Amino acid sequence: MLRGSRTTTLRITLLALATFGVVGLTRAQLAQAPAAAPMPSGWNWAPFLDAVQAAPKSHRVLIDNERVRVLEVVVQPGQKEPIHTHQWPSVMYVTNPAPLRYYSAALVSGKWVEKSDDSTPPANPPNPNRPRPPQYLEPEGPHAVENMGATPFRALRVEIKTP
Fold first, then answer.
1. Domain 48-160 sits in CATH 2.60.120.10
2. CB environment 55-72: b (16+ within 10 A), e (fewer)
3. What is the pLDDT of residues 93-151, one digit of tens each?
C-alpha cells in the first residue's frame, strides 16, 4: 500500500477520478461492469517476474490493495523493459502514446528467448489530441516492450485482483 501524506492520497484519488472521467466511465457503468475473472489456476510464472519487481523503472505502484493494483507505466524513448509478467486481468489507459515494439518471451533450456515480429514496423501512435479508449487486457505471460519513438510512452494500468 502506498504510504504518504494526505496530499499524496488526495492526488492519487484525483488522478484516478480524472482518468475515469476522461474515458467517460461513470460510477454506475463501473458498478455494472462484469466481475473480474479469478486469477488463472495455471499461472506458472515466478513472483520475481511480476512487472513491479522485474521492471521497476517502467512500473510504479500508485495504489495496491486486496482488489486492485494501479500502475503508472512509463517507457522512455529507446528504452526496452526487462522481461516481466502481469498475472491479473487489467484495463490500460494510455495517456501519452508512442510507437512500441512488443516482444513475447519463452524460457528455452533455462534461457529467455525473445520473439518480435520485425517484419512490420512499430505502429504509429494515434493522434495525441484524440483520446484513445481504455483497453482490457488478459493476464500476460513473459514479455517486454520497447519504445521506438522520440517521446515517453505513459499509461495507467488498473490490475483487477478480485471481483
1. yes
2. beebbeebbeeeebbbbb
3. 999 999 999 999 988 888 888 888 665 555 555 555 566 789 999 999 999 999 999 99
